[in-house]
Each structure stands twice: as structure tokens, then as C-alpha cells.
Design goal:
about 200 residues; alpha/beta; five-stranded parallel sheet; 8 helices; 5 strands; about 10% strand
Length: about 200
């Protein structure tokens, strides 16, 4: 079974590719919705996994474009939020957990369920990536650039738990849920507290 994995987080894509190929799938990565549409129209894929938030062209727009062009193969949405757009055949909650992914995929074609240990090299690469993101959050907090700040928080929420950083993912989820209710004058204080909590996660 050939899969197209549309996801702008390269490390998350590497992890998925490793898991899926170990289970016997063939995987091609598309780094944004525009690339996903172009590759999907080659019709070499049996199923598409489409992240909702991507640069250039988001997942919903990419799906809608494909459907308008007559693409009728399965498209599974991936998001940390609830997916309500019509046109997807199923959805997966991020952070992705391989047993749940496997269960969804077996709906379209049965394959063996395999346990896979997270490779240390990939985990270390994500740890380094997460540390860089947290450093960016410090800078964005000083600048009070809350749009980019929350975009990174959303990214951490959707990927950290896939690399065994469950606490970091939960902290990001909590902040995202609270953010719209936090008065503008208190956002710097709340962001600083979030970063202090992240330090307590001890990324190592």
C-alpha cells in the first residue's frame, strides 16, 4: 500500500515513514499542501494522510482542490484540533500514536500490527529541534509576537508526544486552550510561566 504523508514537520515525517515502512507500507513525504496536490494527481498513492496546518497550501484547501479535480481516493486528516471539513474519509488526532494510525489504515487495507521502538537518533534530533523552538519562543515572548509564538506552541502540541515528550505536548495543549481567554496585558506573564514549565520537562 502506497501512502502520501503531507506534513510540514520533517522530523515527524521521518518518524512516520520509519513506522509505516517497518509495517510494510511505502511512504512518500510532501512538505506542504501544494506539493501534496501535485504528487497526489500522479495517482500512484492508495491513501493520503493530510496535515491540516501547512504552509503555502493548508490541508483543507489541498483536500478540497483534489476533490474538485475528481480525486476519489481516501484522504485522512491529521490535526491537534477537531476536523469538521467535509471531504475527508477519516481523521487522526495529533500527536500521532502509531497503534491508532495502524487501526485507521486497516480500515482501508489490513496489515500486521507491529511495535516499534523510537530510534535514539531520531529522538535526539527532535530534542535538539524542540530546544531550538523553545529558544525561539523566548525571543518571541520578548517581542510579544503572539501569532508566531502560538504557531510554535501548536507545533509542539502536535508533535512532542510522538517523540515521548508527553509533558511538553500537554503543556502546549493547556496553553493553547487558555490563550484566547488571557487578557492582552497578561500574555507575557503567561508565556514566561509556560517557558518555565517547559524547562521543568528537562529535555534530554
Amino acid at each position: 500500500m502506497n501512502l502520501l504523508f503531507a506534513e510540514d514537520d520533517e522530523l515527524l515525517a521521518q518518524l512516520f515513514q520509519l513506522q509505516a515502512e517497518t509495517a510494510g507500507y511505502q511512504v512518500v513525504w510532501a512538505e506542504n499542501g501544494d506539493v501534496a496536490v501535485q504528487q497526489a494527481l500522479s495517482y500512484q498513492f492508495d491513501l493520503i494522510l493530510m496535515d491540516i496546518q501547512m504552509p503555502i497550501l493548508d490541508g483543507v484547501s489541498a483536500m478540497q482542490m483534489l476533490r474538485q479535480l475528481g480525486y476519489d481516493r481516501p484522504i485522512i486528516a491529521m490535526s491537534a484540533e477537531e476536523v469538521t471539513a467535509a471531504g475527508f474519509d477519516a481523521s487522526l488526532k495529533k500527536p500521532l500514536q502509531w497503534p491508532e494510525v495502524q487501526q485507521r489504515l486497516t480500515k482501508f487495507k489490513a496489515s500486521p500490527s507491529l511495535e516499534l521502538e523510537l530510534p535514539q537518533e531520531l529522538k535526539e534530533a527532535y530534542l535538539a529541534h524542540a530546544k531550538q523552538l523553545l529558544q525561539q519562543l523566548v525571543i518571541l515572548t520578548r517581542q510579544q509576537n503572539w501569532i508566531d509564538f502560538m504557531a510554535i506552541v501548536h507545533q509542539l502540541k502536535g508533535s512532542a508526544a510522538s517523540f515521548d515528550l508527553v509533558a511538553l505536548s500537554q503543556l502546549a495543549d493547556q496553553l493553547q486552550n487558555e490563550w484566547k481567554t488571557i487578557p492582552a496585558g497578561q500574555r507575557t506573564e503567561r508565556a514566561t510561566y509556560f517557558l518555565e514549565q517547559c524547562k521543568a520537562c528537562k529535555l534530554k
